Amino acid sequence: MGKVSPGTVAVLWSSLLVSACYFAPEFRVAEANFTAACQRMVRQQLTAPDRGITNVQVLAAMYKVPRHEFVPPALRAQAYEDHPLPIGYEQTISQPFIVAFMTEKLEPKRTDKVLEIGTGSGYQAAVLAELVGEVFTIEIVEPLAHRAAADLKRLGYTNVRVRAGDGYKGWPEAAPFDAVIVTCAPEQVPQPLVDQLKDGGRMIIPVGPVGDQKLYVLRKQGGKAEQRAVLPVRFVPMTGGKSSATKR
Ligand code: SAH
Questions:
Q1: What is the mean pLDDT of residues 186-194?
Q2: Residue 163 phi/psi, 5° resolution?
Q3: Residue 244 has pLDDT above 80, yes or no
Q4: Which pTM value belongs to this model?
Q5: What average pLDDT does the structure give for the chain?
Q6: Residue-wise pLDDT tens digits, 74-122
Q7: Which of ligand 1's atoms lies nearest the C-alpha of 87?
Q8: Residue 1 confidence class, pLDDT cut points 50, 70, 90
């Protein structure tokens, strides 16, 4: 056998160490558990007859996006359970069913440019990013916006742009949008968001005070917006801007 240089030995050792960590039993078990929990979530919470999510692309996105990467480490074991979870700053990541339901109602298409108000953890933005061309998302709590942007980047989502600011006003420079999704509840539909929707565009938005909110699907057709209520819901209120001006 020829001589092996100390440099080669060092490289061999470090690659051995890296593979040892990657294939460590705990790592594999944890990942396998998350995959199994995610499969169960799709089956029991989304496709079950009493839930009725049927859009195959939406289901594939819900299956693919690692929800446990968007929740605080201490709550990872609960990431795929049938309820919202706290993400800090008194905010929450929505229940998986609500994310899937809203995404399905948005009728996402590969070529769509979508605006989201209320980035939160970035999970809903990631689900959308799997389905549409571009996602623009606004979060009013600055540290949440920064954390979501970092998580989305780390997970390889290059088609999402995150902005820290008041989503009531929308994102005029990037408008018009094919679809708008709002994940915090204003008292009324913000007019700037309707204005920034393309003709033929769709919006899904929870409206009303806590305890009496409904999810609306709004369609803009020939300059007119038509809306219908589809589900009673419970979202955090939209803060900032005009959304809460009536209460101050
Ligand atoms: N879509 C999120 C869940 C959002 S929770 C996810 O997938 O995790 C609602 C978020 O809306 C909160 O983070 C809250 O800070 C944010 N929010 C409330 N009012 C807002 C406003 N005016 N503009 C932008 N974000 C707002």
A1: 97
A2: -130, 140
A3: no
A4: 0.88
A5: 91
A6: 999 999 999 999 999 999 999 999 999 999 999 999 999 999 999 999 9
A7: 8
A8: very low
State if residue 141 touches ligand 1 by the CB under 6 angstroms criterion: yes
CATH of domain 54-233: 3.40.50.150
User: Does the CB atom of residue 120 touch ligand 1 within 6 A?
Assistant: yes
Ligand 1 center to 184 CA (angstroms): 5
pLDDT band at 12 (very low <50, low <70, confident <90, very high): low
Atom of ligand 1 nearest to the CA of 118: 11
Give just the sign of the alpha carbon dihedral 186, 188, 194, 196: negative
240 pocket-lining for ligand 1 (C-beta < 6 Å): yes
Choose the catalytic residue: 14, 15, 19, 94.
Answer: 94
Catalytic annotation on 15? no
